[in-house]
């Protein structure tokens, strides 16, 4: 129920017109074979169909903890089997593989959205100064908890934004290196060995909870809920807690961290990249055409014609790198642009709300601002629609 409500507020906050819901199956997938997981997923989907809980215009599932493109494909195929005549059937689920009408950019959307959000948060010098930080992500020391889909992509895109990933925490322990990690190399090591433990040059963190308490600029909980509690909150040494996971901070921990002056970027905002790009995928499936397909070639030709005109008029020859920047937008370009715009707009609205609603002459915290904006948008919708019958 809590996660379902959180999805409602999250969608409202980033202006995604989904009502918000959650569902799942409680099991340890490591104890089941792939064929057993497939049968369980298909049966679950069948029950959703029978109860009219799934469909392009009803509820639209997406990947979350323990699931991915494979499970979404099983859901899609089961739905197509049960409703082969529905024109928009592929919009019944998102997070699908590209080959099954998925969308480019969905796999890393939650992590990328978190980084887009952090870039905007850290861009205001006046907000960073009280934390003892300079504006921007460049050179920031970051610890990421969780190295699954969200944690890996958040770490990868943070590294590409010139942040330094000094710690990675998994369920069986963690690794630490003040010089920072190459995220791709860590991912390859885990692929080869099954764990990040033992990564060359890294200091081993035997107790994963200890990794949360190491000194850093930004702590990114990107695993499960209730990781920051009233018990460990007094020992958190980060200047910013960036909630890339759903509900990683308990209310008790939230109060302690706020009292200590630690900035908390709430999950309702920072975790919204996944549902935002799921919305884009849903739109793509309803339109039955890949984003950018109609205009990319035309834009390419127009851009290159303009380049040639400039070169001819000025005598300047663009380098290969400069030419590579001049091209029409493909689907992933458009998806990332839409996601970035969504995160920037949502944060700016939160920041404005913080200053409008003051608590004892101080701006309210970001979580409260996020809930104010989300609830206001939901309430306004109910008031405009009225009650019928």
UniProtKB/TrEMBL annotation:
It holds the Pfam family ELFV_dehydrog_N. One of its GO terms (molecular function) is glutamate dehydrogenase (NAD+) activity. CDD domains: NAD_bind_1_Glu_DH. One of its GO terms (biological process) is L-glutamate catabolic process. NAD(+) binds at residues 110, 149. It catalyses: L-glutamate + NAD(+) + H2O = 2-oxoglutarate + NH4(+) + NADH + H(+); L-glutamate + NADP(+) + H2O = 2-oxoglutarate + NH4(+) + NADPH + H(+). It comes from the Eukaryota. InterPro entries: Aminoacid_DH-like_N_sf, Glu/Leu/Phe/Val/Trp_DH, Glu/Leu/Phe/Val/Trp_DH_C, Glu/Leu/Phe/Val/Trp_DH_dimer, Glu_DH, NAD(P)-bd_dom_sf, NAD_bind_Glu_DH. The record marks 64 as: Important for catalysis. The active site is at residue 22. It is found in: Mitochondrion. Residues 103-386 form the Glutamate/phenylalanine/leucine/valine/L-tryptophan dehydrogenase C-terminal domain. SUPFAM superfamilies: Aminoacid dehydrogenase-like, N-terminal domain (SSF53223), NAD(P)-binding Rossmann-fold domains (SSF51735). Substrate binds at residues 10, 278. Belongs to the Glu/Leu/Phe/Val dehydrogenases family. PANTHER family: GLUTAMATE DEHYDROGENASE, GLUTAMATE DEHYDROGENASE 1, MITOCHONDRIAL. This is Glutamate dehydrogenase. It comes from Geodia barretti.
């Amino acid at each position: 129920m809590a996660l379902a409500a959180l999805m409602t507020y999250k969608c409202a906050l980033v202006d995604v017109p989904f009502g918000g819901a959650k569902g799942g199956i409680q099991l340890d997938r490591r104890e089941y074979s792939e064929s057993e997981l497939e049968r369980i997923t298909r049966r679950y989907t069948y029950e959703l169909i029978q109860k009219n809980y799934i469909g392009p215009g009803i509820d639209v599932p997406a990947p979350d903890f323990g699931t991915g493109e494979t499970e979404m494909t099983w859901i899609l195929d089961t739905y197509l089997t049960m409703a082969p005549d529905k024109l928009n059937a592929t919009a019944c689920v998102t997070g699908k593989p590209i080959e099954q009408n998925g969308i480019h950019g969905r796999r890393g959307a939650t992590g990328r959205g978190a980084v887009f959000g952090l870039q905007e948060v850290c861009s205001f010098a006046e907000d960073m100064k009280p934390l003892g930080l300079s504006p921007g992500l460049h050179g920031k020391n970051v610890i990421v908890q969780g190295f699954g889909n969200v944690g890996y992509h958040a770490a990868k895109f943070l590294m590409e934004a010139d942040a330094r990933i000094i710690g990675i925490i998994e369920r069986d322990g963690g690794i630490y290196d003040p010089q920072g990690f190459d995220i791709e190399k860590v991912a390859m090591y885990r692929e080869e060995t099954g764990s990040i433990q033992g990564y060359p040059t890294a200091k081993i963190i035997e107790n994963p909870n200890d990794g949360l308490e190491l000194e850093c600029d930004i702590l990114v909980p990107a695993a499960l809920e209730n990781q920051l509690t009233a018990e460990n909150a007094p020992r958190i040494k980060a200047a910013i807690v960036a909630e890339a996971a759903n509900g990683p901070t308990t209310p008790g921990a939230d109060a302690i961290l706020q009292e200590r002056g630690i900035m908390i970027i709430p999950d309702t905002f920072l975790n919204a990249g996944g549902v935002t790009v799921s919305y884009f995928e849903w739109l793509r499936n309803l339109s039955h055409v890949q984003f950018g397909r109609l205009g990319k070639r035309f834009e390419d030709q127009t851009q290159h014609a303009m380049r040639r005109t400039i070169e001819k008029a000025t005598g300047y020859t663009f380098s290969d790198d400069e030419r590579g920047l001049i091209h029409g937008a493909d689907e992933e370009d458009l998806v990332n642009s839409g996601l970035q715009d969504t995160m920037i707009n949502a944060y700016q609205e939160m920041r404005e709300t913080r200053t409008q609603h003051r608590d004892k002459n101080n701006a309210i915290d970001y979580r409260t601002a996020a809930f104010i904006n989300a609830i206001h948008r939901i309430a306004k919708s109910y008031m405009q629609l009225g009650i019928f019958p």
